[in-house]
Write a structure and sequence with these properties.
Shape of chain B: globular
Shape of chain A: flat
Radius of gyration of chain A: 20 Å
Number of strands of chain B: 0
Number of helices of chain A: 5
Helix content of chain B: 55-70%
Oligomer: heterodimer
Strand content of chain B: under 5%
Structural class of chain B: mainly alpha
Order of helices and strands of chain A: HHHHH
Radius of gyration of chain B: 19 Å
Largest sheet of chain B: none
Largest sheet of chain A: none
Number of helices of chain B: 11
Order of helices and strands of chain B: HHHHHHHHHHH
Structural class of chain A: mainly alpha
């Protein structure tokens, strides 16, 4: 097998370790301290934000407009509607401006 | 279940109304479909770029099937083209996916009742949107069952693998990714996930802290560590702001 094959397998094992690792560590404790509970409840917003903010900081004005409109849409509509509108905005702006 | 005064790590599933397994699967499937649609451009793009970098069609499909993590796959194939030592490529994949450690710790409270093999499979399938949907499901009070979880994951996983194949076959058709706004699609999508949690305690301060910290880290230390650094900053902010007696807090 090629080296690419083994890099993929090793990458898959490493990825699986990240996906099960946090649970394996925490499950050793039966009870969770309230502050840990607070920390775990903050995980979605804290992690997902880091996948948006640096991209927004580096985006052109078209990207920022698309993000802003998508953010407004998400207050009233579901995630798919928001994504499709955001995608439409960025594609149209990149094509015509 | 869900009360803050009971800090048991593995919460029991709610026993309220028994829902048929097929119903639960399709409930999950309905959540997985929009995720599948949003992920599709990246699945195809990955396939096209991997072939460009000299991967065979088999290796391209294998990577999507075995790693199942878009950003880390992109980083992996990009580094592969630069004659970087193999261990460093593997380590970079690990670093990009490191945020999953946090998902894993948090989601263990929701799926702790799965049987061991079910749990292994579930952790394998634990992507960003899968995690977000599981948290929202638990928040809504509906039972997080293995069948429901599979329902979410099935369309996402199957199409992710198929897309790598399609991208590999027709890679040259994607001409100008910038004009198609590919670079902004993922941030737009993740913004939607962030907004989905806006009712949670101290959401605003957490988001602002993570945003500032991740931007600074991205400009100084660099990718992919800005993700872990920004996340830890936001979590610390949540811990600092938490009241000493969070017993009656609603989530």
């Amino acid at each position: 097998m090629s080296s690419i094959f083994w890099i993929i397998i090793a990458g898959a094992v490493a990825t699986f370790l990240t996906r099960i690792g946090g649970h394996l560590v925490l499950s050793r404790f039966e009870r969770v301290h309230p502050r840990v509970e607070v920390a775990l409840n903050a995980v979605p917003a804290a992690v997902l934000t880091t996948l948006v903010a640096p991209a927004a900081a580096n985006a052109d004005w078209r990207g920022l407009v698309a993000l802003a409109i998508a953010g407004l849409v998400s207050v009233r509509f579901n995630a798919l509607t928001m994504f499709l509108i955001g995608a439409a905005v960025i594609i149209l702006l990149r094509q015509f401006t | 279940m869900g009360d803050m005064d009971e800090h048991i790590y593995q919460q029991k599933p709610s026993q309220a109304v028994p829902v048929r397994k097929s119903t639960q699967f399709w409930e999950g499937f309905a959540k997985g479909l929009p995720i599948m649609i949003a992920a599709a451009p990246f699945g195809v793009l990955f396939g096209a770029l991997a072939i460009d970098q000299g991967f065979s069609l088999f290796e391209t499909v294998l990577m999507s099937a075995a790693i199942f993590g878009g950003a880390s796959q992109m980083v992996g194939i990009e580094l592969f083209g630069q004659h970087i030592p193999a261990w460093l490529i593997v380590f970079s994949i690990f670093a990009v996916n490191f945020r999953h450690v946090l998902y894993s710790a948090a989601v263990g409270r929701r799926i702790g009742h799965f049987k061991p093999l079910e749990a292994m499979l579930s952790y394998f399938l634990l992507t960003d949107p899968q995690y977000a949907e599981t948290e929202k499901r638990a928040e809504s009070g509906k039972p997080v069952t293995f069948i429901w979880y599979l329902g979410v994951a099935t369309p996402i996983y199957v199409m992710w693998v198929v897309e790598a194949f399609i991208g590999g076959l027709f890679g040259n058709l994607i001409a100008d990714t910038h004009a198609l706004g590919i670079d902004m699609l993922l941030p737009i999508y993740f913004l939607g996930l962030v907004m989905g949690f806006r009712k949670r305690t101290n959401w605003g301060p957490i988001v602002i802290t993570s945003a500032i910290a991740s931007i600074i880290a991205a400009k100084t230390i660099g990718s992919p560590w800005h993700v872990s650094i920004g996340a830890v900053a936001g979590i610390l902010m949540a811990v600092i702001l938490a009241k000493p007696e969070p017993a009656k807090e609603k989530r």
